[in-house]
Design brief:
A hairpin with a 6-residue loop joins β8 and β9. The protein is an alpha/beta fold. The structure holds zinc ion.
């Protein structure tokens, strides 16, 4: 009996393995008509879906029930014709996604077909791309040579409206504290030459994904979400800064992300209106580059804050905050301190203390843009 069970299990495993196709190679080449031909080689025929997206213009090619050959995932493609970049990723298990990036305002047509490759076992999926509007216009060239663009910082005061966030021991609300902090930090950043956009400047509720959407509309270069924490343990104190990660750095971080993410579930109004546009944004691959940059900024903040105030141990932490899920904008979430701690609550409501924090944030922004001009 037991032997048969094992055998059945093995057979199931083998058959499920053999069902997953593998993308073995991807090639891009210019065509004589100034178009670009994309070719993916797979070991077997696969289900493919194509999705054309704008802002920025791109084509998403999904091979369902398929994996990438390791070599393909490692590969970097140069710019070919009007295709700026080719990226690969696995947004879901057994979904091989390829994204082709096009220049701004680019319009194009695509024609796709498939054919068996040389060996009968293989399968080839081809997309022919042709640009339908002209390439760079003179005005765009001029724009490119103008002096460097003012950096845009999006500040996101957490919570608002019917969502008070954490409530202090004396009954004061996180939503009010972080709005004050955001407005003050805005002034400091503007003095330092940055353009600043607030996701809210009043006591209103904004769903988490609505905040991401605002950051994208503002074309933000950096996104800073501002919060204050609370804990059952009234002695807990200190500042911390978070960047996104699927796996939280510890239990506390996971619980915190869960609390902060709850806003949409508890107070979510009509999410449907945000969903479509944001899923367009989120459909893009989360770029490792963005994650690295977010971490760089978070580390700068830790260095600057350390000069001023007390931090929690390992102050740069990781957790799955919804609000940090922009694929293109480096994003961090600041927890200014604990509203549940008597001393810290008092400090955070002092303007001079908040100004210390604001200045540290600005210094960290300066360093970040020196390193990433
Ligand atoms: Zn919060």
């Amino acid at each position: 009996m037991r032997f048969f069970k094992v055998l059945t299990l093995l057979l199931c495993l083998i058959s499920s393995l053999s069902f997953a196709q593998t993308v073995q190679d991807i090639r891009l080449a210019s065509t004589p008509t100034d178009g670009v031909r994309f070719v993916a080689e797979l070991d077997q025929q696969a289900d493919v879906s194509l999705l054309k997206l704008n802002n920025p213009p791109r084509l998403v090619i999904d091979f369902k029930k398929a994996n990438f050959d390791y070599q393909v995932l490692q590969k970097k493609w140069p710019t070919v014709g009007f295709v700026n970049a080719c990226r690969t990723g696995m947004p879901l298990p057994q979904m091989a996604r390829i994204v082709l990036d096009f220049p701004e305002n680019c319009q194009w047509t695509e024609r796709h077909f498939s054919l068996p490759a040389q060996s009968a076992k293989n399968w080839r999926f081809v997309v022919d791309l042709n640009r339908t509007n002209s390439a760079i216009t003179p005005s765009v060239v001029q724009k490119k040579s103008t002096p460097k663009k003012q950096k845009i910082i999006v500040l996101d005061p957490g919570h608002g409206g019917q969502d008070p966030g954490a409530i202090s021991r004396t009954g004061r609300y996180e939503k009010d504290l972080v709005l004050k902090m955001a407005k003050e930090t805005k002034e400091f950043l503007e003095k330092a030459g940055y353009k600043v956009v607030l996701t809210r400047s009043k006591d209103v509720f904004i769903p988490l994904r609505g905040r991401i959407k605002k950051a994208h509309e503002a074309k933000g270069d950096l996104f800073i979400s501002i919060h204050a924490d609370s804990a059952k343990n009234s002695s807990a104190k200190g500042l911390s800064i978070y960047t996104i990660s699927e796996k939280a750095s510890d239990k506390e971080a996971a619980a915190l992300a869960e609390r902060e993410n709850k806003a949409d579930i508890l107070y979510g109004m009509d999410l449907a209106e945000y969903q479509q546009e944001v899923s367009d944004i989120l459909i893009d691959l989360a770029k490792t580059d963005t994650m690295n940059k977010s971490s760089q900024y978070a580390d700068n903040v830790v260095v600057e804050m350390k000069k001023q105030i007390r931090l929690v141990p390992n102050a740069h932490r990781f957790a799955g905050f919804v609000v940090l899920k922009s694929p293109n904008i480096p994003s961090v979430l600041l927890e200014m301190g604990y509203l549940s701690n008597k001393e810290e609550e008092r400090l955070m409501w002092e303007k001079s203390y908040r100004n210390k924090l604001s200045k540290a944030l600005v210094n960290a922004v300066n360093k970040y843009f020196r390193d990433n001009p």
